UniProtKB/TrEMBL annotation:
Keywords: Cytoplasm, Detoxification, Transferase. One of its GO terms (biological process) is glutathione metabolic process. SUPFAM superfamilies: GST C-terminal domain-like, Thioredoxin-like. It is found in: Cytoplasm, Cytosol. Signal peptide: none annotated. Coiled coil: none annotated. GO terms for molecular function: glutathione transferase activity. GO terms for cellular component: cytosol. This is glutathione transferase. Residues 90-221 form the GST C-terminal domain. Its EC number is 2.5.1.18.
Amino acid sequence: MATEDVKLIGSWASVYVMRARIALHLKSISYEFLQETYGSKSELLLKSNPVHKKMPVLIHADKPVCESNIIVHYIDEAWNSSGPSILPSHPYDRAIARFWAAYIDDQWFISVRSILTAQGDEEKKAAIAQVEERTKLLEKAFNDCSQGKPFFNGDHIGYLDIALGSFLGWWRVVELDANHKFLDETKTPSLVKWAERFCDDPAVKPIMPEITKLAEFARKLFPKPQA
């Protein structure tokens, strides 16, 4: 597939953009990465996603596809003969993967982000406790879905791995901000090992943001109130 046939509008720091990039890398698809600047929106982005006006947007043969999980699904179907299958093959397994992906976006990540935006120690403590509780659910989900294999999807990275794994860089940043470790070998041993395997995968390692760079970006995005 020629690079000019596939473009991705996004930003290096966005977890949602990373989902699309990982899927493209898994399928060995060449693409042009059109980086947006935070705080402004390009004419191409507004034209390609006039409803939500958000990244990522995948442009394939001049046709835009929006929303990260939809893009991952599209990539899996559009290039179904290239690379491993991203979505599980069984309908029930696909439904379970979609369920937990929605949980990650709609509940788990909201709790994680609230740590960075918490006002005061008590609010931060409550947010940390909620993240711990919800992360334990993801530990159980991993054990149920993986059935003893390396990834949620089994032997290789799949839909649910991408949904959660795209957050790992930001997760480390939040751990630093909260001075609290959420991926812990005593509490979440399976997720700890999974995270190591995920970050070391050839489709992920080259595009996983550096934590120091991401932490600096987070300080600008979530400035602390002056004392």
